[in-house]
């Protein structure tokens, strides 16, 4: 990605020149794989919702969200810190880092699993939810080990392999969920699916990296201490940015009714299927950002600008799809059950998805620059806002209030991340000239989609996307690297 360094060994996968193309190709493969996984999820999701019913589905996602929050608090960006360390370490350091990361994640995940069960008991959850938290904790332990072994894949830009493992995980999850629906089981067996799937993903990941890193865990006090010190700061800085979606859902389970929690859960499930896209794209470029931050500031400026531009464009595209297709998505998921409140919630979450792309991308830029203190202040303020809005809005407004909380948090966090980067590193200021162009394309695309919506949601979404991309192309706002990669893929 520009500014090639002649002193960088040709064997370095993160060297300037080919790394940008690898990120675009690999990020594209991961996005395609995620899209296929989303399609598989769309097959199983309505079956699961209709089989379990609104209230049990709310309990199912409550367990998922509690485990996700525990993951965010105990993992705390540990893998992101490890990717950055792996990308800048020598061969011996890379092997030591991964083996120690495996050992550390086993210990932390066991603590997190116990914490999830303890929270469920304190919150007074019913027995079936407590059992779900125990099974979810088991899946988290397996997932933590699997995540540690993905470090060589991410830092080595072996993103196609990473995408393949993720796709197998999605397809297997769908197959198991459909099997349980057909078998007519109750809620508890659904909590077992994640543990089985994570076990398969672990086996595939180990097979892919077994020649690159040791498979046995290590417990080097110096390495553990270094990882924990930096991760603790990073976790404090970005914890809310990782788990804010789940904050609203858990608040619903405590402050509102099971029915309102179910409404929010239905909308949340649709966004959750799509919400992996911004994080996997940002994660794909993290090794390049980490490498450039240490070795090449000119390249860092270039990559930061392209990351901001790409996040804004992709976020606008996905936001249009969610808003224009909201009623179709809710009807599809619930079988046209009485879930009208979920439509308004989905539209609110759809507005916020643009900010999600910026949060993920700018968060990794700030991680690469080690701007932890500023991030801590941003997230502390956002946490106070989240708790205040949840207490005020969720009891009175239910699912709609939770949707407002999530949307506001997304917008506030995104604006604060961009502001921090602009103030602390003016040389890396994002290209704000993109904003009015994207806003114009977004507005015209939304108008086109709403105009066709009375005919059918599918052509309405297609019209919105076509107008949006057409205006962006006419205004020359699409990064040339993305356009070139797309042309090359079509030619092949």
Fold topology:
Layout (H helix, E strand, L loop, with lengths): L18 H57 L2 H11 L2 H33 L3 H23 L1 H5 L3 H25 L9 H17 L11 H35 L2 H38 L1 H28 L1 H9 L5 H30 L2 H26 L1 H26 L9 H19 L4 H18 L5 H12 L1
Helix pairs in contact: 1-3, 1-4, 1-6, 1-8, 1-9, 2-3, 2-9, 3-4, 3-8, 4-7, 6-7, 8-9, 8-12, 8-13, 8-14, 9-10, 9-12, 9-14, 10-12, 10-15, 10-16, 11-12, 12-14, 13-14, 15-16
Question: How does this model look, in words?
Answer:
It is a single chain. By secondary structure, the chain is mainly α. The chain folds into 2 domains: 19-432, no CATH class; 433-492, no CATH class. Helices cover 84% and strands 0% of the residues. The chain contains 17 helices and no strands. The longest helix is centred in the first third of the chain and has 57 residues, at 19-75. The radius of gyration is 22 Å and the shape is globular. Residues 1-11 have low confidence and may be disordered.
Index terms:
single chain; 492 residues; mainly alpha; 2 domains
**Could you list the spans in which at least 5 consecutive residues all have pLDDT below 50?**
1-11
Over the alpha carbons, how many angstroms does the gyration radius reach? 22 Å
| Quaternary structure annotation | single chain
Order of helical and strand elements: HHHHHHHHHHHHHHHHH
Query: What is the count of β-strands?
Result: 0
Domain count: the total is: 2
Mean pLDDT equals 82
Structural class comes to: mainly alpha
Shape: globular
Biggest beta sheet attributes: none
Distance between the termini: 22 Å
- Binned strand content: under 5%
Please bin the fraction of helical residues.
over 70%
């Amino acid at each position: 990605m520009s500014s090639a360094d002649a002193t960088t060994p040709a064997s370095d996968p993160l060297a300037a020149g080919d790394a940008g193309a690898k990120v675009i190709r690999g990020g594209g493969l991961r996005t395609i794989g995620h899209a296929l996984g989303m399609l598989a999820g769309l097959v199983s999701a309505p079956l699961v919702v209709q089989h379990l019913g609104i209230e049990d589905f709310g309990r199912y996602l409550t367990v998922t969200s509690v485990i996700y929050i525990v993951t965010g608090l105990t993992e705390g960006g540990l893998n992101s810190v490890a990717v950055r360390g792996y990308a800048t370490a020598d061969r011996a350091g890379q092997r030591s880092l991964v083996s120690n990361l495996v050992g550390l994640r086993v210990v932390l995940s066991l603590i997190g699993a116990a914490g999830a069960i303890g929270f469920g008991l304190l919150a007074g959850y019913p027995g079936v939810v407590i059992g779900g938290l125990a099974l979810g904790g088991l899946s988290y332990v397996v997932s933590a080990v699997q995540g540690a072994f993905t470090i060589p894949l991410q830092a080595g830009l072996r993103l196609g392999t990473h995408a393949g493992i993720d796709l197998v995980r999605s397809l297997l999850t769908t197959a198991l969920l459909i099997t349980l629906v057909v078998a007519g089981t109750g809620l508890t067996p659904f909590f077992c699916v994640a543990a089985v799937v994570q076990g398969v993903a672990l086996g595939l990941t180990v097979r892919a990296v077994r020649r690159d890193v040791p498979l046995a865990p290590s417990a080097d006090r110096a390495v553990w201490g270094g990882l924990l010190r930096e991760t603790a700061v990073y976790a404090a800085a970005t914890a809310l940015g990782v788990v804010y979606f789940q904050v609203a859902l858990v608040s619903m389970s405590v402050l509102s009714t099971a029915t309102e929690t179910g409404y929010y859960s239905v909308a949340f499930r649709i966004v959750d299927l799509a919400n992996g896209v911004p994080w996997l794209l940002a994660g794909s470029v993290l090794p390049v950002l980490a490498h450039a931050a240490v070795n090449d500031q000119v390249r860092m400026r270039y990559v930061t600008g392209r990351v901001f531009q790409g996040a804004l464009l992709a976020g606008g595209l996905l936001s249009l799809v969610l808003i224009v297709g909201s009623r179709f998505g809710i009807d599809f998921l619930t079988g046209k059950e009485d879930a009208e409140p979920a439509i308004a919630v989905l539209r609110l979450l759809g507005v916020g998805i643009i900010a999600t792309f910026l949060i993920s991308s700018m968060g990794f830029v700030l991680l690469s620059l080690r701007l932890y203190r500023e991030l801590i202040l941003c997230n502390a303020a956002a946490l106070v806002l989240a708790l205040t809005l949840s207490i005020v809005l969720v009891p009175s407004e239910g699912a709609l209030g939770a949707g407002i909380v999530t949307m506001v948090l997304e917008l506030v966090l995104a604006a604060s991340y961009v502001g921090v980067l602009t103030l602390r590193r003016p040389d890396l200021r994002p290209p704000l000239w993109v904003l009015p162009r994207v806003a114009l394309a977004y507005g015209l695309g939304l108008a086109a989609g709403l105009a066709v919506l009375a005919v059918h949601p599918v052509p309405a979404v297609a019209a919105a996307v076509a107008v949006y991309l057409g205006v962006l192309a006419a205004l020359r706002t699409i990064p040339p690297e993305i356009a070139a990669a797309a042309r090359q893929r079509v030619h092949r």
